[in-house]
Amino acid sequence: DRSVDLSSQLVRINYKMSLSNTGSSGAVKTFLFGLEPSTNDKVAFIGAAVGSSDKTYLRVSETKVQAHMDKTFYKIELKDAISAGGSATVNVEVVLGGAQEMYPAVITQKEKQFSRFIGNLYAYLPYSVTSQTTTVTLPSSNLESYTKTKPVSVQDTTIKYGPFSNIAPFTAAEMSIHVENNNPMLVVTNLLRVIEVSMWGNINIEETVDVKHNGAQLKGSFSRYEFQRENSGVSSIKSFKTLLPAAARDVYYRDDIGNISTSHMKVMDDAVELDLRPRFPLFGGWKTHYVIGYNVPSYEYLFYKGDNHVLNMRLVDHLFDDMLIENAEVRVILPEGVTDVVLDTPFPVKRMPNGKHFTYLDTTGRTVVMFQSVGDLTENHIQDFQIQFTFPHRTMLLEPLILVLAFFLLFLLSIVYVRLDFSITVDEGAQAKMKVAGYCEKVASLQDRRSALYQAVEDAMVKLKASKDLSVFQAALKKVASDHKNETTAISELQVTIKNVNQDLGEKVNELQRCDKIYRDYQAQQAVLVEKLVTGKLQKAAYLDQEATLLKKKTEIADKINSLIRAF
């Protein structure tokens, strides 16, 4: 039994073959499967399996037969050899891309799209076929024309040819079907899939996709008014669905302009569904370009034992239903420092030389494994590939150490920079300011010492009131006066130096000296009052009145001295 499915842009031909070994001896382990020469360049996928519910897929490889060098054959290895007189049932699936011709090739916006498929009415096999039927599934019931080789029957969206008996090897007869087909003819003309592996638990995937609507081309200009009002353009593509892995996160969908906000994401149990809506509907011949990216956790795809690692990921993923990819390039960016890289793919690809990719904190660069598809790809090619590599886990500490070292050097250079003078000429003004600042610090220090002497006089007067020993009091005053003279002389010398450099600061030091003299005079008057109080020459009430007046004046002068010091 042979079935031909024309309900999408792909032509899916399924063969359910019952093989019989009619020989008298010997078992058959393999058999040949052939396709008519006109479809050789359109074959996107061919596969074989045995069993119905529990399928076992068989190895299929292209081969040549010496007697028929002009024909292409596929050798299919059986699960169990067919002994003499035995039989086995094998299912073979063939997917053709670009096998349907748009007819007419140009239509207006309001017209419907028709396609024409021309194939072989019979199975093109190198063996005699005892009995054969061909069932064609149509995309719609609007059938324009079809091959009427009898026996044939048409029912709704199905055409059935046969059964035909005793078909000779390599029998060919044209089967032409012209039918309305408004299904999307969306083709990926170029796909760039970049997989960046991080040993810190994340894998980033980004796909750059160029798509084209290979349906009947639009005749005339596009009218959005008619498109929205009359719902014309039945063959145009308004949106399509993409399936991402269930663990996908941080999904983005954008083009050269920016983010495309008309998309929708739906998280399901086994996948993440993206409803992608381009900025404009796609008519026949129209193209668009977009980028889709997401992150997945590495523990679902990266496995290791010691320093040996294996990356197991899909070579291509689901872009839309019944997809056809004309050219695909996959780039796998491995961590920096990997060695012994081995690539294993589920079907033949074109391996390109490894490249280098540099990103943050890289030194020698990251190894990039690159390969391209050979021929068209379909949903049947959504299979896993493996990359084996060796990666010492201790090298994961390299980037953090580089970061620590960089910050250390930055701070060290900052410390050195702020302490060095890179000026070409000497700035005399700056040096003078630095000298004056040093002199002012000395003046403030000397004034602190004088303030301590002020306090010593205050303490001596308190002791005199308690002990009434005038000799001790006079000795204390004499010592304070001597120390005060030394401090005042030092400030006077600094005043001359400061005044030569900065006239304003010199005047402030002079004012400080004047306030100091006034404060000392008030202290001397207070000392005389205390002596009179102790000797009984002054009543306590009169003493308290005069002392209060002096204390008020001393406080005012002390505040002025402090403000002058702060002004330095």
What's the count of strands?
Answer: 31
Question: What's the oligomerization state?
Answer: single chain
How many angstroms does the end-to-end distance come to?
A: 107 Å
Strand content: 35-45%
Largest sheet: 8 strands, mixed
**Quick check: average pLDDT?**
90
What this model shows, in words?
The chain is built from six helices and 31 strands. The chain is an alpha+beta fold and 568 residues long. The strands form seven sheets. The chain has an eight-stranded mixed sheet with strand order 5-4-8-2-1-12-15-14, with no helix packed on it. Strand 25 (302-305) and strand 26 form a beta hairpin. The radius of gyration is 49 Å and the shape is rod-shaped. The termini are far apart. The mean pLDDT is 90.
What are the key terms here?
single chain; 568 residues; alpha+beta; eight-stranded mixed beta sheet; seven-stranded mixed beta sheet; 31 strands; rod-shaped
Brief sketch in words of this structure:
This protein has 568 residues and is an alpha+beta fold.
Tell me the layout of helices and strands.
Elements: E1 2-5, E2 11-20, E3 28-34, E4 43-50, E5 56-58, E6 60-65, E7 68-82, E8 87-96, E9 100-102, E10 106-107, E11 114-120, E12 129-137, E13 143-146, E14 152-155, E15 158-167, E16 174-180, E17 186-198, E18 202-213, E19 217-218, H1 224-229, E20 240-244, E21 249-254, E22 264-267, E23 272-276, E24 287-297, E25 302-305, E26 308-314, E27 328-333, E28 339-344, E29 349-357, E30 366-373, E31 384-390, H2 398-418, H3 428-467, H4 470-501, H5 503-535, H6 540-567
Parallel strand pairs: 1-12, 10-19, 17-27
Antiparallel strand pairs: 1-2, 2-8, 3-7, 4-5, 4-8, 6-7, 9-11, 11-16, 12-15, 13-16, 14-15, 17-18, 18-24, 20-23, 21-24, 22-23, 25-26, 26-31, 27-30, 28-31, 29-30
